[in-house]
Each structure stands twice: as C-alpha cells, then as structure tokens.
Design brief:
This protein is an alpha/beta fold. Helix content is 44%, strand content 16%. Strands 1, 2, 3, 4, 5, 6 and 7 form a seven-stranded mixed sheet that branches. Helix 3 packs across helix 4 and helix 7 packs across helix 8.
C-alpha cells in the first residue's frame, strides 16, 4: 500500500511538472515550406496543408488515420497511378502539415478542410478513401454531398463508435499526455496496429516519427486532436442513420487482427451499406497497408476499375 502511494505521488509530481513546462510552438506554414522546399503545400483557410500528387487521370484522394500521415499510403500507390491521379493529404496537426494551436481540431474543421481542398484543386467526382479517423471524415463528406463522390474506400473505419482506446485516451490527458507522446509510447501504438512486428521495426518507424521529431509542436497537436475531435454526435446524428441510404459504391478494407477497429465492425458495415463490398486482408492488423500492401493495392485497383 505504501509503495502504491509513493508511485501515485510520483506520477502526480511528474504530471504537475510537465503541465508547468508547457509546449513549444509548432512550425508556421511559412517555416514548414522553407524547411521542406521539395514538398507540396496548399493554404486552406490560413492553414498550410501538405499533400502529394502522383499519376495522371481521374482523382483519388486518400486520408490517413490518427497519429500517422500520408506516408502510410506509400506502398499501395505504385500500380494505381495509371489512369488515376492520387492525392494523399496530411491532416492538420499531422505529418508535414501545419499544427496550429489556435484552431479547433473537431471533425467539422476537418470535413471543411477536405471540402476546400477538393474545391481548390478542382477535383470533381473523386474516389475518396480514408483510414480510421480519415475514413470518418470522407464518409461524412460523402453523406453530406450525395452524388459528388464517385466511389468510397473505408479502411478500418470506426463508423459506429469513434471513442479512442485507453492508450489513445491517455495521450490526451493534460500533463501525463506530454510524457506519453514520447517516441517510446508512439512506437507501442504503431506496433499494436500491425500483425507482423517487423513491419514496425525501429528503422521502419523512423519516417513515422520524423514529423514528431522535426516540429516542436507536433506532439501537442496530437494531444489537441485527441481532446477535441469528438465524432460521437456526428456518428449518432448523421453517419449511422444514413448508412442504409448511401448509394455510393463503397469498398470496406479490413484486417482480421485489427485491434483498434475489429473486423466485426467491417462486417456490420457491409450489411448496413447497400452498395458495399468488403475485402478482408489476411494476416494483417489495423495498418493493412504495412502488413500486406500487395493485397491492399490489388483490392483498391479492382474496386477502382469495377464499373
């Protein structure tokens, strides 16, 4: 009992100390563009968002999930660019996009930024794809803009319950979250998302961790997202009631060992969305693109070409 009290007191002291230290400001849009002159940026309502563009043809836009960046799509893009221009976008607060502390990180802001991105680049009738929270954003956009999305790809999509796991919730706690957004804890979260641990070795994780190491405010941006995204009301009021009314062709991509959004969620979505198909990527977890990029690429390509 005495040891427990000492441990509790120690954790409290660390939390208070970290809270007092505060967070360093994130790099401004201008600083990011100067630091990374070879990367593409677009200004959306005063926020610099990083994106990549590959291929030539009809547009496909892909959004990453919580904590990652557009880097997660790198292995499936080759082989998809013939006849398709693929845009991968870093969400505000992630990757090489700006991470402002004076903007709301709620789902409405992200849907609005996606709308503006599509308009600014004149991307009409695109295929929209997303993983995790990225899937939430593209699904809500599709529901609010019927007929404006050609096809929809949802990877590990939490469309019934977007409440984060305990590990993720801890990241959003004041004080303690500053400790837990260190590289050691982020590595644990990334590794929990794959079936094959070698896919998230220390070397493989370097590009995932680089944005957190390069931008002083990146970890604060992650905590701010966890604290503010809160998609539960949107799920209850807009997404779940409209799943049965969705007419856009939808591909559901899932790993059978997804510890973040179980396969049962994908199978239920396949029942609830009338014009859907589900592709279960064997021997994979949440990050199917890391575990089995060849199978994910093939599923995307078949869906894209399906009339």
């Amino acid at each position: 009992m005495q040891e427990f009290m000492w441990l509790r007191a120690g954790l409290l002291a660390v939390t208070v100390l970290l809270s007092a230290c505060g967070s360093q400001p994130s790099l401004s849009g201008a600083a990011l563009q100067e630091k990374y002159p070879d990367k593409k940026y677009i200004d959306i309502d005063g926020v610099a968002l990083h994106y990549d563009q590959q291929g030539l043809g009809r547009p496909m836009v892909l959004l990453h999930g919580l904590g990652t960046s557009s880097y997660v799509w790198r292995n499936i893009i080759p082989g998809l660019t013939y006849g398709t221009t693929i845009y991968t976008l870093d969400l505000m607060g992630f990757g090489y996009s700006e991470k402002p502390q004076d903007r709301p990180y709620d789902i409405e802001t992200y849907v609005s930024q996606l709308d503006a991105f599509l308009q600014e680049l004149n991307l009409e009738n695109p295929i929209l794809g997303g993983q995790g929270v990225g899937a939430l954003i593209v699904a809500l956009h599709a529901i609010r803009n019927p007929g404006a999305v050609r096809k929809l790809i949802l990877v590990g999509a939490p469309l019934y319950d977007a409440s984060p796991t305990l590990n993720i919730r801890l990241l959003g706690l004041p004080g303690l979250g500053q400790l837990l957004t260190g590289d050691w804890f982020l590595k644990r979260i990334f590794r929990a998302g794959v079936e094959t641990q070698e896919k998230m070795s220390d070397i493989a994780l370097r590009p995932y961790l680089a944005p957190y190491q390069d931008d002083p405010g990146a970890r604060a941006g992650l905590r701010k997202f966890i604290q503010e995204f809160d998609a539960e009301s949107v799920l209850e009021q807009e997404i779940m009631p409209n799943l049965s009314q969705m007419t856009v062709p939808t591909l559901l991509v899932w790993g059978p060992h997804d510890a973040l959004v179980p396969l049962e969620v994908g199978r239920q979505l396949d029942e609830d969305i009338p014009n859907s198909d589900i592709s279960v990527i064997l021997r994979s977890g949440h990050y199917v693109q890391e575990d089995r990029p060849d199978l994910v690429r093939a599923a995307f390509r078949e869906f894209r070409d399906k009339s």
